[in-house]
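Input chain follows. Return structure tokens only.
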Amino acid sequence: MKKSADEKLRKIKDIDYYLEKLKVKRKDASERKIFAEVLDKRTLVNLYKLSKKYIRAMGGVVSTGKEANVFFADGFDNGKLIPVAIKIYRTETSEFYKMDEYIFGDKRFDLRRVSKKDLINLWAEKEFRNLQRAYEAGVKVPKPIVHFRNILIMEFLGEDEMPSPSLFEIGRKLPEVVDCERLFDEITKNIRLLYKKAELVHSDLSEYNILLHREEPYLIDMGQAVLVDHPNANMYLERDLKNLIRFFNKFGLKKDINEVLKEIVN
């Protein structure tokens, strides 16, 4: 029992030491608890290494999840100070229930003799590379800046340290905020760019991971995206479109999935 208490105290001291190094702007009790949950010592050390070039000061928590937490930070992109989002995948408590189906079959990655921790690092790399492909193809996604081990740094989408809302968060008020027909067309335009030019399928698209940033839709959470030659790519694309059509049906938009699918792939 005493050993467990001593280990907890050492962890708190390690966290405090590195939080000071990372110049965390705010440390209230709830945010400090989240730092403690996701930031093991190895992650803290890796963050500190990244801070020398990419992070000026860590900020508060943007979102929390089973697999990863996202933090706001003042960061650097090619030496320019910009707001960034730092996504940190959990190395100890990650619950990637169906990770394998999105990585196996991807010719970009060699999965022989990959440990659980290596798999999490590989997932962070996969999301970074997917974002790169999408961004370079002109798809509206956060600009990727760097990844290292289980850490991904990207452009922050929001204002005054507040993230832009997802379509789910806007909910029933969506028609008051934006023209739904135009928004649907913009999203499908981005899905087509993703498919035709980046040669990717998002594979987990829904109202939860489309942000409305300055009245434009941005696709996020690209870790599950697969190449179009993945064995399940067509199934994932159809599922993405069904989710999209289901959401927009709530606002009176009646879309035929076969017609939308033809627009994407042709």
